[in-house]
Amino acid sequence: MLNILYFASVRERLGRSAEELALPVGVRDVAGLIRHLGQRGGAWEDLAGIRNLRCAVNQQMVPLDSPLADGDEVAFFPPVTGG
């Protein structure tokens, strides 16, 4: 199982803050997970379109090509701006 967390505007777009999902067959990295989630349609398709989407696996910020394993925690964050 993956424990997936959604933060800030990503959470608002999707209408949920977390979910558990069995690691889908063929999904090997964060980018593959995003593509898999996008197949749900609607707001989920938008997840892949968020420019500079930030991701963490097991509380470490990672690039989209980072591998996933059963039991991982994956978090998605919108781009961060400051001022």
What's the CATH architecture name? Answer: Roll
- Major sheet: order of its strands? 2-1-5-3-4
Number of discrete helical segments: 3
Low-confidence residue ranges: none
Q: What is the string of helix and strand elements?
A: EHEHHEEE
- Per CATH, the superfamily is Beta-grasp domain
CATH class: Alpha Beta
Radius of gyration computed on alpha carbons: 12 Å
CATH fold descriptor: Ubiquitin-like (UB roll)
**Morphology:** globular
Q: How many domains make up the coordinates?
A: 1
Total strand segments: 5
- Strand-pairing-aware structural class: alpha+beta
Could you describe the largest sheet, including whether it forms a barrel? 5 strands, mixed
The average pLDDT is: 92
Estimated helix fraction: 25-40%
First-last Cα distance: 38 Å
> What fraction of the residues are assigned to beta strands by DSSP?
25-35%
GO molecular function: nucleotide binding
Protein name: Molybdopterin synthase sulfur carrier subunit
Keywords: Nucleotide-binding
Organism: Candidatus Accumulibacter adjunctus
Produce the secondary structure layout.
Blueprint lengths: L1 E5 L1 H7 L3 E4 L8 H9 L4 H7 L4 E4 L2 E3 L10 E5 L6
Parallel strand pairs: 1-5
Antiparallel strand pairs: 1-2, 3-4, 3-5
Helix pairs in contact: 2-3
Explain what the structure shows:
Belongs to the MoaD family. One of its GO terms (molecular function) is nucleotide binding. This is Molybdopterin synthase sulfur carrier subunit. It holds the Pfam family ThiS. Keywords: Nucleotide-binding. The structure is a single chain. The protein is α+β, with helices and mostly antiparallel strands and 83 residues long. The chain has one domain: Beta-grasp domain (Ubiquitin-like (UB roll)). Helices cover 28% and strands 25% of the residues. The chain is built from three helices and five strands, in the order βαβααβββ. The protein has helices at 8-14, 30-38, 43-49, and strands at residues 2-6, 18-21, 54-57, 60-62, 73-77. A five-stranded mixed β-sheet has the order 2-1-5-3-4. A hairpin with a 2-residue loop joins strand 3 (54-57) and strand 4 (60-62). Helix 2 (30-38) runs antiparallel to helix 3 (43-49). The N and C termini lie far apart (38 Å).
